[in-house]
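Subject: sequence -> structure tokens, single chain

Hey, anyone have a minute? Need the predicted structure for the following. Not urgent.
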Amino acid sequence: MLCLLTIETSTSVCSLTLSVDGKSVFDRMELTGASHAALLGVFASEAVAYARNKHLKLDAVAVSAGPGSYTGLRIGVSEAKGLCYGLAIPLIAIPTLKIMASQVLRPSPFALRPNYFCPMIDARRMEVYAAIYDANLNEIRPVQADIMDENSYKEYLEKHTVAFFGNGSDKCRPVIQSPNAVFIPDIYPTAQSMISLAEEAFAKQDFVDTAYFEPFYLKEFQATVAKNKVIKQQ
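Reply:
Had a minute. Here:
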């Protein structure tokens, strides 16, 4: 019996799932945004208490590895590390864009099956974090920070149908005009959608070093000062 805890906090969604042999037995999710720091610890405490009450022994914790929100990723990874240290279990890290692609690769409602799948995370302005996968979840193009224009992904769209999805895809729809572009709404990474990927990683013993693992931010965090703030000089 394989019992895993999965954590996803890379976007505005904060979610945590406890699974047993591939099935979710405890799930918590909040969609409203910047409350990860307040919610995730509560979700984790409830999940651990549930596991103890059901006499379940956690085998590993899996966390979304990024890219995504700098703050969200740090909160998720910190919570995952704390659980791994406290319970003496291994840590699994799963790329966020791969989590999103795996959701879309489930049975599709679209009559036209895309050749490639491009998950996108909003990186502000006209920039997105994106990667491209094939129908077997093989990485065709690694994650990059892409600035969108009319030529974006042209080399893929000329000969193939490409599905775009994620919270970065909305702003790309007016820019990418190819008839081979398919836009799939309402796709965001969740802890529940990590279960199968986490189980595959566990079977391969694909763990990361709990002490030294850091999220994949892709770009360095830059602090900004709000425009309406006036800095007074002494």
